[in-house]
Amino acid sequence: PGTLYIVPTPIGNLSDMTERAIRTLLEVDYVAAEDTRHSKPLLQQVGSKARLIALHEHNEKQKTAAVMELLSNGLNVALISDAGTPLISDPGYIIVSRCRQQGLPVVALPGPCAITTALSGAGVATDRFSFEGFLAAKPQQRKKQLAALAEESRTMVFYETPHRIMHTLEDIYQTLGDGRELVLARELTKQFETYLYGNASQLLQRLTDDPNQQRGEMVLIISGYVAPVDADDQPDLQAQKALAILVQELP
Ligand code: SAM
């Protein structure tokens, strides 16, 4: 059978195509793309003559069968999304899981992804993190999701959109309070790449003062929950407490 290649594409800077990604797009018979009109210039730029198939959120189930057929017939297919790594808040899960179930070869290439770019550039704790994708569009649901993360101790990473960022910051203020450090990583790898730092109220103020900062593509990072120090868990503090009691008893 042919191989399904998962090929990341740039998230804003065309030079971020890897050599291997270019070579793969040149060698495959078909490229399955989220939006064929959007991806045509990229294929032209690298000189790929592969035929394009539209595979997006709304037809992934149906198109998966067609792509599996091509693979079974020995043809090679590359899956790309509009930007970044396929399957990361983008289509591809159905086809990759089917290929794995049926033993068809899948090769995933590493490459551009907004999560890793934001995390590696922000200067936040990255030893453990939780990717939360996009928060729900409905305010009630969004607040519930945030409330469920109130005691998440890992760094949290969200994808956000310009028309929802102010509501999200407001919801964070209401559900998680104003004690969290936030980072808004905007327009990564592009001309106006910006990292904004602050707690929820500071970022709300900043984005109100300069509405340009509400625009573009953005990743929101929330620092993890740190439990308040409980004296009973701290041997030193316990000893100090005991000493204080003893001192009172001294003549
Ligand atoms: N698959 C992509 C990836 O690997 O990053 C993500 C696709 S998702 C549909 C699009 C979201 O990714 C945007 O709404 C934004 O949150 C984030 N994103 C993509 N490119 C970005 C960039 N250049 N700067 C900041 N965030 C970006």
From TrEMBL:
<dbReference type="InterPro" id="IPR018063">
    <property type="entry name" value="SAM_MeTrfase_RsmI_CS"/>
</dbReference>
<comment type="function">
    <text>Catalyzes the 2'-O-methylation of the ribose of cytidine 1402 (C1402) in 16S rRNA.</text>
</comment>
<feature type="domain" description="Tetrapyrrole methylase">
    <location>
        <begin position="3"/>
        <end position="203"/>
    </location>
</feature>
<keyword id="KW-0489">Methyltransferase</keyword>
<dbReference type="InterPro" id="IPR000878">
    <property type="entry name" value="4pyrrol_Mease"/>
</dbReference>
<keyword id="KW-0698">rRNA processing</keyword>
<comment type="similarity">
    <text>Belongs to the methyltransferase superfamily. RsmI family.</text>
</comment>
<dbReference type="InterPro" id="IPR014776">
    <property type="entry name" value="4pyrrole_Mease_sub2"/>
</dbReference>
<dbReference type="GO" id="GO:0005737">
    <property type="term" value="C:cytoplasm"/>
</dbReference>
<dbReference type="InterPro" id="IPR035996">
    <property type="entry name" value="4pyrrol_Methylase_sf"/>
</dbReference>
<dbReference type="GO" id="GO:0070677">
    <property type="term" value="F:rRNA (cytosine-2'-O-)-methyltransferase activity"/>
</dbReference>
<keyword id="KW-0949">S-adenosyl-L-methionine</keyword>
<dbReference type="InterPro" id="IPR008189">
    <property type="entry name" value="rRNA_ssu_MeTfrase_I"/>
</dbReference>
<keyword id="KW-0808">Transferase</keyword>
<protein>
    <recommendedName>
        <fullName>Ribosomal RNA small subunit methyltransferase I</fullName>
        <ecNumber>2.1.1.198</ecNumber>
    </recommendedName>
</protein>
<dbReference type="Pfam" id="PF23016">
    <property type="entry name" value="RsmI_C"/>
</dbReference>
<dbReference type="Pfam" id="PF00590">
    <property type="entry name" value="TP_methylase"/>
</dbReference>
<keyword id="KW-0963">Cytoplasm</keyword>
<dbReference type="InterPro" id="IPR053910">
    <property type="entry name" value="RsmI_HTH"/>
</dbReference>
<dbReference type="InterPro" id="IPR014777">
    <property type="entry name" value="4pyrrole_Mease_sub1"/>
</dbReference>
